Amino acid sequence: MNTTTRWFLILGAAVAVGLVGVCLVAICVIPGIVIPGLTGYPTGPGAGTFTSNGQRIYFTATSARGTPITASGGSAGMGMMGRLACATCHGADGRGGPVRMMMYSVDVPDIRHQTLTSEDPAGMEHAPYTDETIKQAITQGVEPNGQSLDPFMPRWSMSEQDLNDLLAFLKTL
Ligand code: HEC
């Protein structure tokens, strides 16, 4: 075997090892980032393109203004879900429903504006919301009657403008 042939063999082997590596990454890593139950929702920073800043906040918890949006509170196991956005729990359509997270299964409410503000919201034990009390629920985790929301609902910190954008988006659901 001359030197050239040997080099070709070494190069071939290196390429083969590289290809196997790429396949392993594709097989192991890519499915690993698909969280069961979340497929279909474009969540995560920068995911998808949005028609409004409110929609972007709803789906990614990031603002087109670049102003910070942070969540605090929430239950154990949430960290495992990566970055959370409203859509993660309340669904792409805002109608909520059961959400499974780790060992929990939580019934997440419908937060479409029309449902929250209606006089006789089906299955709700609190007074109808106003724009102001919806903002309080989002930022302080309180219902219109002053009762605390379940800690599973994060307490959100965002600029007043971002909050208004988000509220405007809830009105379109
Ligand atoms: C980790 C899951 C989770 C995320 C993320 C989340 N929520 Fe919630 N949210 C809940 C749960 C659970 C409740 C019900 C709490 C209760 O009934 O005490 C709730 C309640 C609410 C309520 C009050 C509804 C009512 O009927 O009283 C509003 C408004 C709300 N969420 C808005 C939002 C918005 C806006 C975002 C994004 C900025 C968001 N939530 C993100 C889980 C979540």
Describe this structure in words.
With 173 residues, the chain is mostly helical. The chain has 2 domains: 1-33; 53-170, no CATH class. 40% of the residues lie in helices and 9% in strands. The protein contains 6 helices and 4 strands, in the order H-H-E-H-E-E-H-H-E-H. A two-stranded antiparallel sheet has the order 1-4. Helix 2 crosses helix 6 (160-170). It is elongated. The chain starts with a helix and ends with a helix. The model is unreliable at 22-41 (pLDDT under 50). Heme C is lined by residues 74, 78, 84, 86, 88-90, 106, 108-109, 111, 124, 126, 134, 137-138, 143, 149-150, 152-154, 156, 166.
What distinguishing features does this structure have?
9% strand; binds heme C; 173 residues; mainly alpha; two-stranded antiparallel sheet; 40% helix
> Strand pairing plus helix content: what structural class?
mainly alpha
Question: Total domains, how many?
Answer: 2
Number of helices: 6
Instruction: Calculate the terminal CA-CA distance, rounded to whole Å.
Output: 71 Å
Instruction: Give the ordered list of helices and strands.
Output: HHEHEEHHEH
Into which percent range does the helicity of residues fall?
25-40%
What does the overall shape look like?
elongated
Low-confidence stretches: 22-41
Mean pLDDT level = 78
The whole-angstrom Rg is: 23 Å
- The share of residues in extended strands comes to 5-15%
Strand adjacency order, main sheet: 1-4
Could you give the count of β-strands?
4
Largest sheet: 2 strands, antiparallel
Bound molecules: heme C
